[in-house]
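Consider this:
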Amino acid sequence: MNSQLKVIAGAALLASVGSAMAQDMVVKIGHVGPTSGAIAHLGKDNELGARMAIDELNAKGVMIGGKKAKFELLAEDDAGDPKQGTAAAQKLVDSKVNGVIGHLNSGTSIPASKVYSDAGIPQISPSATNPKFTRNGYKTTFRVVADDVHLGGTLGRYAAKELKGMAIAVIDDRTAYGQGVADEFEKGVKGAGGKLVGREFTNDKATDFTAILTSLKGKKPDVVFFGGMDAVAGPMLRQMKQLGIEAKFVGGDGICSGELPKLAAGTMGDGQVVCAEAGGVEGESKKSLEAFKAKFKEKYKLDVQVYAPYVYDALNVMVAAMVKAGSAEPAKYLPVLAKTEGHKGVTGTISFDNKGDIKNGALTLYTYKGGARSEIAVVR
C-alpha cells in the first residue's frame, strides 16, 4: 500500500471510530453509603445493589436519545458520617455525575441533599427515612421507602396494642435517623394509649450500655425500643441478656438486618425482636423480589442484608426517566423523574408525590426465629 492510500485508510478508520464514539454516551451515576465502619455490611449491600443494576443495564444496551448509553458507577464511602457525606457529595458533583443513588443514613442524606440541589443533580435515597429529608423544598430529592412518621408510628402502635406493652422504654443513638424514629415511636405509643416508663440515649459508636440498661431495669420494662443501627443493637441485646432484662426488643429498619443475630451473638430468643423495614411487597411482587435475592446471591455469594433491592429499583427508576426524557442531562430528565408513576420494580410499584416521597409506602414487620428473619405482616 502506497503512502497516499495509507493516509486515506487511516483517515477512514479514524472517521469510523469517531462515528462509533459519537453514537455512544457515558452516563455516570454516583452511589454513596457507609462502606467502612460499623455498618459497612449495610453500605456494601447497597453498593452491590447498584452494581447489579449497572451491569444489567449495560448488558441490555439501553438507548437514550438515539445513543447507546454506557453506565458507570462512581462509588463513594461516607462512613455514616455527615461531614464525610457532604465531602463525598461534592466529589460526585465535581465529577459531573448525571445522578446519585444514596445516601444510606438520614444523617448523611439530609446535608448531602443541599449539595446535590445546588448542583441540580437528582438524588434518590433507597433508605433515608427521616421526614426532614424531603421537607427542605429541594426539587432534586427523592426516596423509594416510607418515612419515619409511618415507620415509627406503626411500631409504637404495634408495641402498645399487639405486644401489649404495659411499660415501654425508649433508647436512641442521637443520630438524625435514631432520634427521629424514636420520637415517632413515642407518639405512636401515646396515641395507642401505651405507657412510657423511660427515655435514654447513647451514640452510634457505643459498645457499653450497662448504665442506661441498669437504669431502665429498675422500671421493669416489658418492651424496649431502640432507635439506631444493628451494630449497636447487637451488643445492646447481649447486655440486656446479661442483666436479666427479658423485654421484647423493638426497632426500625436500622436493626432489621440479616446480620443482627450474629451481632447479638446468639442471645436473641425466638420472637424476642420485632423490627420494621421501610418497604414491603405483597402478592405477585413477592416473586420479583425473591428472584432478585436469588440473582444477588448467585452473583455475589452473599445474602441481601436490607436495602440492596431498593438501591436496584432507585437506579432503574432514574434511568427510566432518562430514557423517557431522551436525555441523561439532569435538567432535562429531572422533571420526568418527578412525575414517575407506576414504575414496576422488584420492591413493588414506585410513584412519587410532590415532595419526592414514595406514594402509598409500605412497611414490613419482621421477627427472628432460628437466627433468621421471619415476616409478620406488610402494613400500609
The CA atoms of residues 101 and 214 lie 41 Å apart.
